[in-house]
Design brief:
This protein is mostly helical and 215 residues long. It is 67% helix and 0% strand. It is built from 7 helices and no strands. Helix 1 packs antiparallel against helix 2, helix 1 runs antiparallel to helix 5 and helix 6 runs antiparallel to helix 7. The longest helix is centred in the C-terminal third of the chain and has 31 residues. The radius of gyration is 18 Å and the shape is globular.
Length: 215
């Protein structure tokens, strides 16, 4: 039995079930002032990145079952690339929380309760599966740019809501403090650079683990 794929399957099921349950709970109740209820929770990149990662895990589950049943040899490349994109997104969430938000918000609202999964467990599960378990398919250098897409899309929306529209005109408040002091033009490139750094480093480790397995 392919133990790595079995472990990946278990983690992917964990991600799908946990994310679904937590996001569904937002439509009923939230005792965390940093978590909005209902569809408003999708204002946060935390929610969006974890949902995207869960959708990718859901896509991978049938292929991993097929491998365990001996009906296919490896995961399709497109699915591994999607996991790469999802992992990069949730790891950006993890790093943002640990570096930018902890000094601003109470730790209990960032690292306890459902936030413990969305900010820590979910990202770590995605990282582990991509780096060490789903390593049959090599990520090519040009594909590192694909990992930037979720951040670019969200960044464009955030910039529009916070800077162009503004909270006073019905836009979002600057809850990520990316426009603190009006310096969005500095923080946004930094966020993209950090995203690319995540993608670059994790690609190297992923491909090295794949070579070690095949070697």
């Amino acid at each position: 039995m392919n133990k790595k794929i079995l472990a990946a399957l278990i983690l992917n099921i964990f991600v799908v079930v946990s994310t679904t349950a937590i996001v569904a709970s937002y439509f009923f109740h939230s005792n965390n002032p940093l978590v909005l209820t209902g569809f408003h929770s999708f204002m946060f990149f935390t929610t969006d990145s974890n949902v995207f990662a869960a959708i990718v895990s859901l896509i991978l589950i049938p292929y991993e079952i097929q491998i365990l049943r001996g009906k296919r040899e490896k995961l399709p490349h497109f699915a591994v690339v999607l996991k790469y994109m999802g992992m990069t997104s949730v790891m950006l969430t993890f790093i943002t929380v640990m570096t930018l938000l902890l000094p601003v918000y109470d730790v209990k609202f960032l690292l306890l309760g459902t936030a413990a999964y969305m900010h820590i467990a979910g990202p770590i599960a995605a990282l582990v599966t991509f780096l060490f378990l789903e390593t049959d398919s090599k990520i090519r250098m040009p594909e590192t740019l694909l990992a930037l897409i979720p951040t670019i899309i969200y960044g464009a929306v955030y910039l529009t809501q916070v800077v162009i529209i503004g909270e006073q005109n019905g836009g979002w408040r600057d809850f990520y403090t990316f426009n603190k002091g009006g310096y969005w033009f500095i923080t946004m490139p930094i966020v993209l650079s950090v995203t690319y750094l995540i993608a670059f480093i994790t690609r190297l480790i992923h491909n090295r683990m794949g070579r070690a397995k095949n070697g």
